[in-house]
Amino acid sequence: MEFGILGPLLVSDEHGERPVAAPKQRVLLAALLLRRGQVTSTERLADCVWDGEPPRSARSALQNSVMRLRAGLGAAGARLQTHAGGYLLDAAPEEFDLHRFTELHRRGAAALDHRDDEQAVELLDAALAVWRGDALLDVPSDRLQREQAERLADHRLQAMEGRVTAELRLRRRSMVAELYALTAAHPGRERFWAQLMTALYQEGRQAEALAVYQRVRRALDEELGVLPGAELRGLHQRILRADLEPPLADGPRPGDRHRPAPRPAAPAHPVTPPAPSHPATPPAPAHPVTPPPPAQLATPLADFTGRVTELAELTRLLTVRRGTGIRATVLSGPAGSGKRTLAGQAARAAQRAFPDGVLRADLRGSRTDPATPHEVLAAFLTALGVPADRLPAAGADRAALFRGMVAGRRLLVVLEDAHNAAQVRPLLPTDAAGAALVTARCRLPELVGAVPMALGPLPLPDAVTFLRRAVDARQLVGDPAWPGEPTDDPAALAELAALCDGLPLALRICALRLATRPGWTVRRLVDRLVDPERRLDELRIGELDLRAAFAGTLRGLDQATATAFGRLALPGPATVGTRTAAEALGSSASHAEHLLERLVDAHLLTSRTPGRYRYPALLHLFAREYARQQGGAGGRPGRQLCTTRRC
Question: How far is CA 288 from CA 208, 240, 293, in A?
Answer without folding.
Answer: 9, 21, 12
